[in-house]
Each structure stands twice: as C-alpha cells, then as structure tokens.
Amino acid sequence: MDAVLSNFEILTREDAEAFSIAKGWNGSIFFMVGMKGPRATLEMKHGDIRVGPGKAGKPDIILFFPTARILNNLFTGKGSGFPIPLKGLLKAKGLKVFSKLAKRMEAILKGANPPREIKARLLINTVGKAIAAIAALEPESQVIARGIKGIAEVRIKNDEAVNITFSGQAVTARNGHAPDTDLVMEFTTQDLFLDIVDDKVDVFAAICLEDIRVEGDLHMGEAMNLFLDKVGIYLQ
Questions:
Q1: Do 44 and 27 contact (CB within 8 A), yes or no?
Q2: Strand, helix or coil at 215?
C-alpha cells in the first residue's frame, strides 16, 4: 500500500494540477486492505498530502478494499472492483477530490505524453517502497531479507532516491538519500530509468554500458535483483 499511497505526497508536491485539486478538500482517509492486510491514513491539508501507516486520529472517510488487487486497480485504471466506504459515504467532496487525484496519477503514469520528470520520481518511489513491502511481507522474500543487513539505495543520478534498510528482522523504506549505504543502484538519467521500466532497454546491456551503476555488497545486490523481479508482478 505504501508503494502506491506515498506517491500522492510526491504528486501534489511536484504537479501544479494535482496540488490545485488537493486544495479542494481538507480531511483524512483511512485505507484498509482485506481483514488482516495493510492499513494507512492519507491526510490532505491546504493542498499538502501526508501518508502514514495505520490509523491516525478520527478519519473523515474509511475505504475498505477486499483485496490488494482492487486497490491497485483503482490507481492503474485496469481491472474491476471498487472499495467499500465504511465511513464518509455522504462526504462526496472528499471522495470526489481523491478520485480526481487518482485519475491525475493515472494520467501521469499511463498517459501518452506525461511530464517525464514527475513520472520518473513517482516510479522510483514506487519501486523502492514496493521492494521493501515485498521483502517484509512475501514469504519467500522474507527468508532472503532476514539474511541481509544494511542499507540499499535506489536512485536516479542527481535526482530522486529511495533507501531501504534491512535489519535482519524488519525492512523499511524512506525517501531521500541515506548518509551511508551498503549497496547503490543508480540510473544515469530519468529517461533511462523510464525506458527500463517500460522494457525498452535491456538491463544487462545497460549495466555493461555503465548506464546503470551497481556498487557495494554483492550478496545484498543479488537479493535486490530477486526483489526487483517480483515488483512488476505485485504491481500489475
């Protein structure tokens, strides 16, 4: 969930249209996935969005997603299914604003001519947060994650970055550069990163040409490659 919802923080910070939409409502939305799935709260205030784990305060709207796929469908525009509003059904303005933001997100991520700088920053965040979620929650990946300790950073050169901390017990992801890293995976340009995400560039060839720089702990690098292979599957 964090891989998807945290993008709204970036979206309203980087995109003027999204910021204008978000200014239309102040309030909070609590997201629930399944009976025992992840929970998060999204708060809007004067166009600024903050997302945190779990339930924060008394949310104005509660949206229940029976499955994680239904949550993904909401943001990708693919598939079917709708969330069940457990609270705030009559707060149409908040639901309308959030729906518009979700459509703006989809337009940037899936549109024909999106603002590439914003798209790259959204997707590097998605990749980093998704790696952390998979390593922490997916059974096979949990076993691998327990065997590594340290900080891995995924970044675009001179631009957006996400750092992932493996403690041996937990996995957490944070936006920004880490003061000290054990592994760095760096893409030389935004365009290269987007082409790789869109399967337009061969990753192995890009590494050989040093368009992708991977430095640091080889064992952690192997684990990161395994997690990356699963990111596309879980975000379909």
A1: yes
A2: strand
Give kind and range of the element (H or E) at residue 44.
strand 39-45
Which residues, 6 or more positions from 61, have their beta carbon under 8 angstroms from its beta carbon?
Answer: 27, 28, 29, 30, 85, 87, 88, 91, 94, 95, 98
Q: Mean pLDDT score of the chain, rounded to an integer?
A: 89
The predicted-structure confidence for 157-194, as pLDDT tens digits, reads as follows 999 999 999 998 899 999 999 989 999 999 999 999 99
DSSP-derived secondary structure letter, 61? E
The answer for residues whose C-beta is within 8 angstroms of residue 6's C-beta and 6 or more apart is: 51, 125, 129, 175
Q: Which helix (H) or strand (E) holds 70?
A: helix 68-76
Q: Are the C-beta atoms of residues 4 and 126 closer than 8 Å to each other? A: yes
Instruction: Please give the full DSSP string across 88-150, using - where no structure is assigned.
Output: -TT-HHHHHHHHHHHHHHHHHHHSSS--HHHHHHHHHHHHHHHHHHHHHHSHHHHHHHHT--E
Give the dihedral sign, CA 123/125/128/133: negative
Domain 2-110 classification at class level: alpha beta
Alpha-carbon separation of residue 8 from 26, 61, 68, 142, 147 (angstroms):
15, 17, 18, 27, 32
Give the Cα separation of 222 and 193 in Å (integer): 19
Task: Report yes or no: 187 and 193 within 8 Å, Cβ to Cβ.
Answer: yes
Q: What is the pTM of this model?
A: 0.85
CATH topology agreement for domains 2-110 and 116-234: yes
CATH architecture entry for 116-234 = 2-Layer Sandwich (3.30)
